[in-house]
Amino acid sequence: MKKLLIVIFIACSVSAYAQKKVKNGVIYSEHPYIEVMRQFARLYEQHDTAAMGRLFADSAKIYGMMRYAVDTSKAAQWSVPPPRTVAEAKAGWQQVFETWEHFSMKPIGTPDGLKYNKTPFTVQSWWLITLTNRKTQKVAKIEMVLFDIFNTDGKIAIQIGFYDPMSLLIAMK
Q: Per residue in 117-132, pLDDT tens?
């Protein structure tokens, strides 16, 4: 039995060392597209929807913005909203700016630029967004992750955002 275990261990060790290492891309901590995302955050804090919109390609698709008018029905909780166009996103941002004030969008950690083989350049960034509801004066704090995929012209072609809206819901009551 002992010899069998030794043979199995040796076979597993040889197998592990025989695996091919294949590089699938590069991760950047500094890149011009990361600076675009920092600019996006500054513009968001300044409520500049026009300038924010210019960072996106005309045909950009924006996912994960939840709903500007929060819908807590069961169907809405489990459905994935369709992508927004840049015009729809600008209207949504404006609605947010009319409902909330005292915006802060601060990075959590260092954003990463991801350049995988055969895929467009993507920036993954984590943010702490703090804002105050104009009606209730309650503060909401949201941790958000954004994945921004850039086209060859340096514009955001796809933005995917994830966050938990619970803090927003509580601040609205």
A: 989 999 999 999 999 9
